[in-house]
Specification:
Elements (H helix, E strand, L loop, with lengths): L2 E3 L6 H10 L9 H8 L5 E10 L2 E11 L4 H7 L2 E5 L2 E2 L5 H16 L7 E6 L7 H6 L3 E3 L2 E5 L8 H9 L3 E4 L3 H19 L6 H9 L4 E7 L2 E10 L3 E9 L9 H15 L4 E3 L11 H7 L4 E4 L2 E5 L2 H16 L2
Parallel strand pairs: 4-6, 12-13
Antiparallel strand pairs: 1-2, 2-3, 3-4, 3-5, 6-15, 7-15, 8-13, 8-14, 9-10, 10-11, 11-12
Helix pairs in contact: 7-8
């Protein structure tokens, strides 16, 4: 009979094997990521649940609930995010997956400090498990993404021209001051265009210190003008954050160089995929999607699964985000 496991009960070797072999396994579901989340107690509250059948781990789900130092901001913004989606054994039964997701939904959605919503941001195809998600109280929401095969050279002619024209260089960050300089560029992007919450600098410095991520910095005349933060497993390099001072250095194309450097890193690492981690909702104009499309990737719709725990606060939050994004 299938049973639910918590962190101390999950065999770490089985956990690593499941993530590595599952068609839905990603770096974001690994023990390494849970350890990273645990090292950031002031920023987030990590969680992990597994389901076991006859001593074999059949699925695992790693995520975090956001924290804010400001109690009022925390009340209106707390959310549970499962990056990549759960790692599910290829032969798992629907009942096993439903048990995992139902337990996770119940455990997270009860209590006074429950998140406003729980969301899985899928990087792979969960079509075989859609009924299991729905049975556990999750609704499917369409969302697009680009997967780039780094072994191909399908860049648009425009991207090839920009790469050739730029005099900027791309190199790995080698000290914390460079991370801080890059973070200032990222902060400006989120303030002026993205307009959604951004982790404080502590998150990025921890990722650098722990070797969790690589920071590919774009430099021009000694100044950091853009770059990306990427993470990787054996199969995929993920572009977690990317930014560039594209208006100020319009002839250097820092965002183009940052993304291209990530694709080249995937190629050098013999990874089969460069994951751009999101391209917006289908049918909704989105400049970021247009930008990413020119790198020759495959447009996929693996969507998201959503469970709303606090409907009123969720509606208020959606309204607030819409207002923020409408401001110039």
């Amino acid at each position: 009979m299938a049973q639910i496991l918590t962190y101390n009960q999950i065999d770490r070797q089985q956990w690593n094997t499941l993530v590595r072999t599952s068609d839905t396994g990603t770096w974001f579901q690994s023990p390494e990521v849970y350890d990273f989340y645990t090292s950031l107690p002031t920023l987030l509250e990590p969680f992990v649940y597994g389901v076991e059948e006859s001593g074999e781990l059949r699925a695992v789900c790693v995520g975090y609930v956001t924290k804010e130092r400001n109690p009022i901001k925390h009340f209106f913004t707390r959310r549970a995010i499962i990056l990549g989606g759960p790692a599910i054994a290829n032969g798992a039964a629907k009942e096993e997956v439903t048990l995992l997701l139902s337990t996770l939904n119940l455990k997270l959605s009860t209590g006074s400090n429950a998140p406003i919503y729980i969301e899985t941001r899928n990087f792979n195809d969960y079509t075989p498990w859609k009924e299991a998600f729905e049975a556990a109280g999750f609704a499917y929401k369409p969302h697009l993404n680009f997967h780039v095969d780094p072994s191909t050279n399908n860049l648009s002619d425009n991207r090839k021209r920009q790469l050739k024209k730029s005099d900027a260089i791309t190199e790995l960050a080698t000290n914390e001051s460079e991370i801080q300089e890059w973070y200032m560029v990222l902060t400006e992007l989120y303030r002026t265009k993205v307009k959604t919450p951004l982790w404080p600098i502590d998150f990025f410095l921890a990722a650098y210190r722990q070797g969790i991520a690589k920071f590919l910095l774009v430099k021009y005349e000694g100044r950091v003008i853009g770059g990306s933060m990427v993470v990787a497993d054996e199969r995929t390099v993920y572009e977690w954050f990317e930014c560039g001072l594209n208006s100020e250095f319009k002839d250097q194309y820092p965002s183009v160089l940052a993304t291209y450097a990530g694709i080249q890193l995937a190629l050098q690492s013999a990874c089969k995929r460069y994951d751009m981690m999101g391209a917006g909702e289908p049918g909704v104009p989105y400049g970021v999607r247009d930008f990413k499309a020119e790198f020759g990737g495959q447009l996929v719709e693996h969507g998201r699964f959503l469970s709303v725990c606090k409907p009123m606060l969720y509606r208020i939050g959606k309204w607030g985000v819409k207002i923020l994004k409408s401001k110039k």
